[in-house]
Design a protein that fits this description.
Number of domains: 2
Subcellular location: Cell membrane
Main location: membrane
Number of strands: 0
Radius of gyration: 23 Å
Number of helices: 14
CATH superfamily of the largest domain: MetI-like
CATH class of the largest domain: Mainly Alpha
Family: Belongs to the binding-protein-dependent transport system permease family.
CATH topology of the largest domain: MetI-like fold
CATH architecture of the largest domain: Orthogonal Bundle
Keywords: Cell membrane, Membrane, Transmembrane, Transmembrane helix, Transport
Distance between the termini: 31 Å
Structural class: mainly alpha
Domain ABC transmembrane type-1: 70-262
Length: 277
């Protein structure tokens, strides 16, 4: 093997440190989820898991409707993830391959929305949701979530579609009598499906971890998402770290399972977009 292509020992060291930095917070969360508050705040801290995890997990399910909260989060995050994949692909296709007046101005406006903090939209957004009578409903989270954070997805898909699909291919499809929708759904979207999958997965994770907006609009326990259910495990005067971390660990498990099954596909989609962009 050529010495210039040989991986140095310090490369493995840096990769090992990076993996440790990513995994240690999850491990520490599990350690605290198996102990009580006194043990979690000891100095030096305990680094070996205790034996109270199943007891604390049982308290999580009896204190709040946690199963219902997980299902609510799956409905919200799944809908938003699928919506981001399709809507961002549609918008990216329009900006990349369709010619219409004001296209560049509209695209610039979409990109500029990434510089606006999402917190600025809370008050007018709540006023709209309240006027529609959607407070304390899942659609109050789903419909705004389809728009929030999608500017990056539109930008990603516009760049990816522009680099992946040639204009000659689309012109040939039009000559054969294909409509714009048929061109998108049967030609463009299948070619950029890996990139759309990445956008959908990012939207799913963002919606799953969202706390601020669901905390504002959801009132009844049966409508809580997972993050609001974790907040409900705490009270104003005392925080049981073991109970809170048990709920956090249980809410993280679905994401860990998801990444186990789709991690390779996500990396492939990112690399595909990187090389073709």
């Amino acid at each position: 093997m050529n010495k210039s292509n040989r991986v140095r020992w310090w490369t493995y060291l840096l990769l090992g440190l990076a993996v440790f930095a990513c995994l240690f917070p999850l491990y520490w969360m599990f350690v605290v989820a198996t102990t009580d508050t006194a043990t979690a705040t000891k100095l030096p801290p305990e680094i070996v898991p205790g034996g109270n995890f199943f007891h604390l997990a049982g308290l999580v399910f009896t204190t709040v409707p946690f199963v219902r909260s997980i299902l609510n989060s799956l409905i919200v995050a799944g809908t938003i993830g699928i919506g981001h994949a399709v809507l961002c692909s549609l918008a990216g296709f329009a900006f990349a391959k369709l010619r219409f007046r004001g296209r560049n101005v509209l695209f610039l406006s979409v990109v500029l929305t990434m510089t606006v903090p999402t917190q600025l939209a809370v008050i007018p957004q709540y006023m709209i949701i309240s006027s529609l009578g959607w407070v304390d409903t899942l659609q109050a989270i789903i419909l705004p979530g389809l728009g929030l954070g999608s500017a990056f997805g539109i930008f990603w898909m516009r760049q990816h579609l522009g680099a992946t699909i040639s204009d000659e291919l689309l012109q040939a499809a039009r000559i054969d009598g294909a409509t714009t929708w048929q061109i998108f759904w049967r030609i463009a979207f299948p070619l950029v499906r890996p990139a759309a999958f990445v956008i959908g997965l990012l939207g799913f994770v963002t919606a799953w971890n969202d706390f601020l907006w669901p905390f504002i609009v959801l009132k009844s326990p049966e409508m809580y998402t997972a993050q609001i259910a974790i907040k409900a495990l705490q009270n104003s005067f005392h925080i049981d770290l073991g109970l809170a971390m048990s709920g956090s660990f249980l809410a993280t498990l679905p994401l860990l399972v998801l990444f186990v099954f789709v991690g390779r596909r996500m990396v492939a989609g990112i690399m595909d977009g990187a090389f073709k962009g």
